[in-house]
Design brief:
The protein is of the alpha/beta class. It has 13 helices and 10 strands. The protein folds into 2 domains: 206 residues, Vaccinia Virus protein VP39 (Rossmann fold); 181 residues, DNA Methylase, Chain A, domain 2, CATH 3.90.120. Strands 3-2-1-4-5-7-6 form a 7-stranded mixed sheet, with helices on both faces. A 3-stranded mixed sheet has the order 8-9-10, with no helix packed on it. α1 links the parallel β1 and β2. α1 crosses α13 and α11 runs parallel beside α12. The chain binds S-adenosyl-L-homocysteine. The site of S-adenosyl-L-homocysteine has 20 residues, from α1.
């Protein structure tokens, strides 16, 4: 079989490209398109042989796209118009323009692609952009399946609930029975069957975790295995939050964070939370230990903004978090800081986030890309393993 010709739109740092490689499908990315110069430098560094088009998607004439004669589109359109916290401008938002252009050219291509995979934030499923997408797909004769998936469904201790759509041309049936409901787990097909019966449950817990992330932010003692009886309800945490986190931590289908941590961190001091952040955000940090089996979604502001951007790691694992937080309010700033510092809390490094996202060890950043830029790019990226599995499912024959 000739390798599939793949067009990667909104390519960023190449999360989709990594997922394609991991899937093992014989394929070649024949063009990647993105306007972000920093992302493009990282992409080029990792995929020097892939033609990268540093231009806007809506600026590419139909003729040029036709000339590529691609079989598959992988795309993560910019998510701002569809986030629950952002202004829900949806299709009227100028940032949606390029996506509408993609929908516009799809029926006009000389040879439509056989396969499409789209990733977006949760919320896309109820957007006008999604309506426009499925209308176009139906018009062009595609079958499709929508899914809402988060990495814990693959045993990865990180929440990142995302909307996915996989589509293929009618003449190629899916290997599973499609449904117009949005699936919240991978469809059962033989090669992906898991021997872990509670993975669906893991996902359910994390759906809630993701939803809560923007509403209630809490600070939790993790590692409940060590102290099952003692539960501390910190100021901003509800009993429900605590229960959910505990159940995630006790789910042995999910790997421990320690498997994803770096052994020798370069310039470790830069990752420790500065005193100002400790004092200011102590009560809203989501604190996890290396033995935890969960972490919240890392967003592009991680390492810079504290609130709701992702978990922080307690590296002094023998210190009991409950004793640190107990009667914290009654202390002076200085005493507070002294107590909080005993936990030795640090941010996850960009490499650790890349590990949780499933980027392979050989994936890297050019030296000149700053830590802040790395967090930003990774925050916009996706879970590579989830994509790899979806590509496998998409390509599976009936
Ligand atoms: N999946 C990617 C990230 C996608 S984020 C990864 O793994 O990194 C969305 C990307 O779309 C951003 O990198 C942004 O620069 C790019 N983008 C947004 N609007 C665009 C447009 N009109 N044309 C080309 N690229 C665009």
């Amino acid at each position: 079989m000739a390798p599939l010709r793949v067009l990667e739109l909104y390519s960023g740092i190449g999360g989709m490209h990594c997922g394609l490689t991991e899937s093992g499908v014989p394929a070649e990315v024949i063009a990647a398109v993105d306007v972000n110069t920093t992302a493009n430098e990282v992409y080029k560094y990792n995929f020097p042989k892939t033609p990268l088009w540093p231009k806007t998607i809506e600026g590419i004439p139909l003729k040029e796209l036709d000339a590529l004669s691609f079989d598959m589109i992988l795309m993560s359109p910019p998510c701002q118009p569809f986030t629950r916290i952002g202004l829900q401008g949806d299709v009227s938002d100028p940032r949606a323009k390029s996506f509408l252009y993609v929908l516009d050219i799809l029926p006009r291509l000389q040879k439509p692609p056989t396969y499409i995979l789209l990733e977006n934030v949760k919320g896309f499923e109820s957007s006008e952009a999604r309506e426009a997408m499925v209308t176009t797909l139906e018009k062009c004769g595609f079958r499709y399946q929508e899914l809402l998936l988060s990495p814990p469904c693959l045993g990865i201790p990180n929440s990142r609930l995302r909307y996915f759509l996989i589509a293929k041309l009618q003449k190629e049936p899916f290997a599973f029975q499609t449904t117009n409901k949005i699936l919240e787990e991978f469809p059962m097909i033989h090669s992906l069957e898991s021997d872990c019966s509670s993975t669906a449950q893991c996902l359910e817990g994390n759906l809630q975790a993701d939803v809560d992330q923007n509403n209630t932010i809490s600070s939790t003692p993790c590692g409940t295995e060590q102290c099952p009886q003692r539960t501390f309800l910190f100021k901003l945490e509800t009993a429900k939050d605590l229960k959910r986190k505990q159940s995630q931590n006790n789910d042995i289908c999910i790997r421990m964070l320690e498997e994803f941590l770096e052994e020798n961190i370069e310039g470790p001091s830069q990752y420790f939370l500065p005193p100002k952040s400790l004092l200011r955000y102590a009560l809203i940090l989501d604190i996890v230990k290396p033995t935890c089996r969960r972490s919240t979604c890392f967003t592009k502001g991680y390492g810079h903004y504290v609130e709701g951007t992702g978990s922080v790691l307690q590296t002094a694992t023998d210190v009991e978090i409950g004793s640190v937080y107990k009667s914290l309010e009654t202390l002076s700033e200085e005493e507070k800081l002294e107590k909080l510092s005993t936990l030795k809390m640090r941010y996850f490094t960009p490499r650790e986030i890349a590990n949780l996202h499933g980027f392979p060890p050989e994936f890297g950043f050019p030296d000149k890309i700053t830590t802040k830029q790395r967090y930003r790019l990774l925050g916009n990226s996706l879970n590579v393993h989830v994509v790899a599995n979806l590509i496998t499912i998409l390509l599976q024959l009936h």
